[in-house]
Amino acid sequence: VTADGAAWSFGSGFYGELGHGDWQAQLLPKKIEAFTGRRVVAVSAGSDHSLAITANGSAWSWGGGYAGELGHGDTQRQLLPKKVEVFAGQRVVAVAAGARHSLARTADGAVWSWGEGRGGQLGHGDGQDQLLPKKIEAFAGQSVVAVSAKAVHSLAITVDGSVWSWGFGGQGRLGHGDGQDQLLPKKVEGFAGQHVVAVSAGRHASHHITSDGAVLAR
After folding, report:
1. How far is C-alpha 99 from the chain's CA centre?
2. pTM flag (> 0.85)
3. Cβ–Cβ under 8 Å, residues 203 and 216
4. Of 200, 96, 204, 189, which Cα lies nearest the Cα of 215?
5. Which residues share a beta bridge with 112?
6. pLDDT single digits (tens) 4-20
């Protein structure tokens, strides 16, 4: 995203994830013309799909939709950015694209998830796919300030600086001292006494920054 609110993309376009209306690769950055007249304020790239937020709080998605990760109620590919209509009347302030799932945080501190759920990465207590964004009820009464998604797990920070993780737990990426999957968000107790201000989910690991500037990994 450039300072004028334009979104640019480049790289593989096999799934339509570049948003230029075709499947062509782009070896140089190319402006996404579908956003002409709109101001993009945030973007996130997954394995085969992309997400964006425009200045009015709308969420947009494009690319591969094979598990419903675009949030349009189907499994169709989208070659151009398309507004996620479920959020009409809501203001989306953050998005995170995983491999084939997506997260969004709305201005009221709620977290929504959709797409592939086989590892529990959607946080709804099951392994079902979701074709439309669904609010994660486990965060009811909490205010989430940040989210991150990767292949098959997800992370969040609540306003008190606590870290929560859920999804596939192999290699200990969830930080609960084991390799168990978590179908619902679970607080990472190893951060007790710390105030975490940023999280980033990697393919096999997770990283965090605390308020004192320390970087922690698991």
Report:
1. 9
2. yes
3. no
4. 200
5. 104, 135
6. 999 999 999 999 999 99
User: Which amino acid, one-letter code, is at 13?
Assistant: G
If you ran DSSP here, which 8-state letter would residue 144 be given? E
d(CA 5, CA 31): 11
- Per-residue pLDDT tens over the stretch 147-191: 999 889 999 999 999 999 999 887 777 888 888 899 999 999 987
Buried b (16+ CB within 10 A) or exposed e, 83-100: bbebbeebebbbbbbbbb
| Main-chain phi, psi angles of 217, to 5 degrees | -130, 155
E-state strands within 32-170:
40-45, 49-54, 59-63, 78-83, 92-97, 101-106, 111-115, 130-135, 144-149, 153-158, 163-167
Given a contact cutoff of 8 angstroms between Cβ atoms, the answer to whether 173 and 159 are in contact is no
